[in-house]
Amino acid sequence: MKNIKFLLFIICLVFFLNVIFFNCSFATLYILKDQEGKDIWITNLENIVSKYEKLGYVIWILEARGLSQKSFEPESISNEPQSPLEPESIDSEPQSKVALPPTTKPISAPTTKPISAPTTNINRDKMVDIFKANALVKWTTDSQMVEYEIKEQTKAYDWVIKYAEYSDILERSKQKWGNDYVMVKYEYEERLKAYNWINQQKAYPEIMKKAKQKWGVDYVMVKYEYEEQVSAYDWLERNKDKNPEAFKRASNKWGNDYVMVKYEYEK
Mean pLDDT: which of 11-20, 158-167, 181-190 is highest? Predict the structure, then answer.
């Protein structure tokens, strides 16, 4: 009987010791939330939390006694817009002195005109919140890269709002890259550069017309198509007399698709 009482005493003692040590060693957890109150990340590393605290995230502390919010003052993010990038003027390559394709006549440059900068229904503060959330997903615990990503995205967003004048080019860039405004800005500049280059081309208007019909307002591809077709046409003018039968056969098959005529001719 005494052994049974002693065993019960030992069991009770172990139980109370476990309760005491469990309450004392309860780990402190930090919960990061965005400004809309959505949970972004949970960690128990206080040194990492202090870095994200500076970026404006709401920090909640989960301890044994309950859940409480940690107060902080977020640092402002530099939002100076980048100086406008003027698109380069790309001079046309000197054309070979050969006859133009039949029935071609010089045509005027495209009639697309600049319009006023587009308006946006998403305010800047909300976009910065989106940049924060995306940066945290992309770089997780690398707070330096998180901060850099937010700064670059905000800078690109400000540039787009201030300097993007061609709405059709901007919309296609946004459709491709969504909220990645660094890439939206890059895509917009590349398309604008191609658009300006196209406007400078005066030779081979029929080739340019077909390139526009094929690719529409995708000016990068219009430029590429035009250059490929002109290069193939010039090559055929220099080499078609070497094998007239092959040239005739290829021309009958592919018409004025000079890239395919050249391909067929070389087979």
Answer: 181-190
